[in-house]
Amino acid sequence: MPSKNSQPFPLPSALRSARGLRANPDEKRERKNSPRSKEPAPLYLRVMTECALPLGRRRYAPLVLLAGLLAVGGLAGCKRASPEPTPREGAERENKEESPAAPKSAQTAPGSFPAPEISWTKPSSWLDGPKSAVRAATYRATGSAGEAEITVFYFGPSSGGGVDANISRWIAQFQGITPEDAERDQLTVQGFRVTTVRVRSGTFSSGMPGGPTTPKENYGLYAAVVETPSGAYFFKMTGPKDTVTSEEKNFVELLQSVRPRS
């Protein structure tokens, strides 16, 4: 810290003028007679005037001068780093920002799946059930033993898992039933390979994967995987074993009606 008798750093007269400080008489006469007296203060002095902290005492002038120079350099650097867009670029940005969004019907909602690319004929005695994002169709078949549910799942190309993995999962939904206990068959429909699996009777554990299940005794299963170029389609019928047995013919007719969507 400088002593009281030390000479302070002389503050430039232009800076004193920009800050409204009083200059000594000699400097006033010199500035009045100078041809540059009417010129505006240099940029670094104006930056120092606007951005620097109040000077207070003159011994802080070197720090203020350094801060002003750094501020000018920083502003110049920012301008170089962010060049003004050309007219074409600016127009493209505006058009992109102001372009309307696609209609909701044309957008793919999160969790949705593509529409099936095959079609089939529903047996006339079956009733329609609710659809969902992954259920292409849901049907209900009535019977004296109770109602059977028929579902058609489609998850899109290369999705839904392989044939063996799905058949093993379906069999595992029946307590005490092994893959050897289930009946498997294969046929070709309209050039599509169809693999079927049949469980005659067992205790079926229904429910969402990972959630609580409700065991249902004397249930049956008839299911199939239809392989197409657009992905696999999963047909599945579960219900009381007597109802599944009575609807077996209708289920086979459903599979044989599969064809490319026109």
Q: What's the CATH topology label of the largest domain?
A: Protein Transport Mog1p, Chain A
CATH classification class of the largest domain: Alpha Beta
Report on the biggest sheet. Answer: 8 strands, antiparallel
* Average pLDDT number: 72
CATH architecture of the largest domain: 3-Layer(aba) Sandwich
Taking pLDDT < 50 over at least 5 consecutive residues as the criterion, the unreliable ranges are 17-21, 50-58, 78-113
Overall helicity: 25-40%
- Count of β-strands: 10
Query: SS-based structural class?
Result: alpha+beta
Return the string of H and E elements: HHHHHEEEEHEEEEEHHE
Strand content: 25-35%
**Into how many domains do the coordinates divide?**
2
Distance between the termini: 92 Å
The number of helices is 8
> CATH superfamily assignment of the largest domain?
Mog1/PsbP, alpha/beta/alpha sandwich
Cα shape: globular
Radius of gyration: 42 Å
What key phrases describe this protein's structure?
262 residues; 10 strands; eight-stranded antiparallel sheet; alpha+beta; 2 domains
Describe, in plain words, how this protein is organized in 3D.
About 19% of the residues have low confidence. Strand 2 and strand 3 form a beta hairpin. The chain has 262 residues and is α+β, with helices and mostly antiparallel strands. The protein folds into two domains: 69 residues, no CATH class; 143 residues, Mog1/PsbP, alpha/beta/alpha sandwich (Protein Transport Mog1p, Chain A, 3-Layer(aba) Sandwich), CATH 3.40.1000. The strands form two sheets. Strands 2, 3, 4, 5, 6, 7, 8 and 9 form an eight-stranded antiparallel sheet that branches.
